[in-house]
Amino acid sequence: MSPDPAHTHHRLSPARVLALDPLIDDPKTRIVVCCGSGGVGKTTTAAALGLRAAERGRKVVVLTIDPARRLAQSMGIDSLDNTPRRVKDVDGEGQLDAMMLDMKRTFDEIVEAHADAERAAAILNNPFYQSLSAGFAGTQEYMAMEKLGQLRARDEWDLIVVDTPPSRSALDFLDAPKRLGSFLDGRLIRLLTAPAKLGGRAGMKFLNVGMSMMTGTLGKLLGGQLLKDVQTFVAAMDTTFGGFRTRADATYKLLQAPGTAFLVVAAPERDALREAAYFVERLAAEDMPLAGLVLNRVHGSGADRLSAERALAAAENLEEPRIVDQEGGKAGLRNSPDTYGSSESPASETPAPDEGSPAVAENTEKERSVDQLTADLLRLHAERMQLLSREQRTRDRFTALHPEVAVAEVAALPGDVHDLAGLRDIGNRLAAGRPELPEAAGE
Amino acid sequence: MSRLQVVSGKGGTGKTTVAAALALALATEGKRTLLVEVEGRQGIAQLFETEALPYEERKIAVAPGGGEVYALAIDPELALLDYLQMFYKLGGAGRALKKLGAIDFATTIAPGLRDVLLTGKACEAVRRKEKSGRFAYDYVVMDAPPTGRITRFLNVNDEVAGLAKIGPIHNQAQAVMRVLKSPETAVHLVTLLEEMPVQETADGIAELQAARLPVGRIIVNMVRPEVLDRADLELVRDAPRSAVAKSLSAAGLGGARRGGNAEKLVAPLLRQAEEYAERYELEHEQRAALGELGLPLHELPLLAEGMDLAGLYELATELREQGMK
Description:
The structure holds two protein chains of two kinds.
Chain A: H1 20-25, E1 31-35, H2 42-55, E2 59-64, H3 69-74, E3 85-86, E4 95-100, H4 103-114, H5 117-125, H6 127-133, H7 139-154, E5 159-163, H8 172-185, H9 187-198, H10 201-222, H11 224-256, E6 260-266, H12 270-285, E7 290-298, H13 308-319, H14 331-334, H15 362-401, E8 407-411, H16 420-432
Parallel strand pairs in A: 1-5, 1-6, 2-4, 2-5, 6-7, 7-8
Antiparallel strand pairs in A: 3-4
Chain B: E1 4-9, H1 15-27, E2 32-37, H2 43-47, E3 58-63, E4 67-73, H3 76-88, H4 91-100, H5 102-109, H6 111-127, E5 139-143, H7 147-163, H8 168-180, E6 185-191, H9 195-210, E7 215-223, H10 230-237, H11 241-250, H12 261-291, E8 297-301, H13 309-321
Parallel strand pairs in B: 1-5, 1-6, 2-4, 2-5, 6-7, 7-8
Antiparallel strand pairs in B: 3-4
């Protein structure tokens, strides 16, 4: 990914602009992983990128983790499930499939694929397995990685766009294969499997005194039945785990491979960007290829040369008594006292106005409400400019920490996405790499 | 107010901020509250502008009128060892378990047990009494996992009690559920006036109610001030552009004629007003949808200067004024 040096922007001068089209067009890009903290539009970004890539000719599958119903519906699929479903009405030669991770189903499939029928049934019916697979938090991360490996192995798509689970610690999915590995290499699993397989004798040899103390302790803690369930489960899973680990390791390597690109998604808010910085650092530490940062919900203004301060001052002006620019004859009527206590001409404090004056013509009323509207428009603008500078400060802090990270800014939408056209719109904004300014103020 | 206040909400709605403001609000006037973090993100420390919290209850703020806010970031691994020590005097065995990887197993591979520990620790703080017989904390406020996971998180003990049919874990799990399903607990959901968070709030409430967990209140966070009212919005629709230009010019922003500086501002300002109008309508719809959920509704303003410690006190005052005390 090389930034386009000519592509500068008034808000993005210090950072490199992330160009997404070259990334998704490149046939060597096979996997795009969207990660980021919750509530920053990760899933929507993944879906919009998938659609854009498909409409630019690629065969794409989007793996979402927990899409909002609306998002699934926006792709014309009422309920996404564990099987890739074709999204209709995609323009061009490419194609788009979308699916939602069903972790229990994915876990079951692994068991079915790796164990003979009898053993598979024993595992699937084990109460401990049922709880574990039905979504003790954490399972989701393992299964997301497993599913990614499966999709890649099927080789039906030339681009896989993955959304990541809203983990407690944002990069849990990266740790999943490793943790599983260390668990499987650990002594606990041997301890748990030994007695079930060999009636305890091997276990005694293996850990002698500690062993009986441990099973005793575990039994005491967990209750005898649960310990037995866990032991049976682990014993039954033994062979399955082996295959699982090999694949988890393979998936981890796949993520590090050149065909993979990570996109960190964030919003221009302090917490989200702090998380984003953490992601960037973690990905570097893990040798994961980072393509850049997608900064969603960035605000712009077509009148950004009018500062918040000037806009507020002008709004106050409008609500102050004015004599100068009145049209003939009405000047006196509009010369009301300064009710804002900030008059620039304190000498002009006149007696109380004639509030109920019948002379207030309809025309004046209208003029007054236009002034009021204009003052409010200016206040709205001041608010927008304050938001802009807050976003700018937050973003600058990130850029100062990570000047090497290319950034694509996506303009905020007033509402949510409801259809393919909405996703397409976001795709356009993503590819532009900077917010589109509504009707720029001109020179 | 219930003694255990659980604060959940969709990611990005500011639930940590709301939980912290609530802990401050409840501590006002000489009360003592404990703010508990369960997700290891150190969001509380960042909010209160202190260094990372250790696994230890530590005073982090003083509330108006002499109250105190303590904070605790629960580390599941330490909580397990703590728990083994407290209930079974298993200090040495705990270390042995750790060596074996059993602690890893309990806190990561079988993450359900991790949730048991987290909820268990919070409930322990709720029930803890001082020698005088007074509760150690008047209120415990939990910065809980997001809406999508909250029911499973709180209900994990039910599941565990079903798995471990006898033994101390079974008993512990049941004791925790007795607190969580009683009026001693209230689960609040934080949302924004946007479609997805509101939808998720509605779904979350249905799930909590189905699991017979006590739903408390809905807190709408980051509510933007009303800048344009209905009258303005109507005027915007068929806004007399030349009149607005004149008005801008009168305010000292340049010429009103075509090409003048004031005139050039009209289009972008009206465009911003249209965006505002669109959002205004959406917010109205979402507020109505929240109203239909039939729960007490609170609104917290968006702080213009972003979130900081002063803002936190401001939100706490707001919550108290709205009756959360």
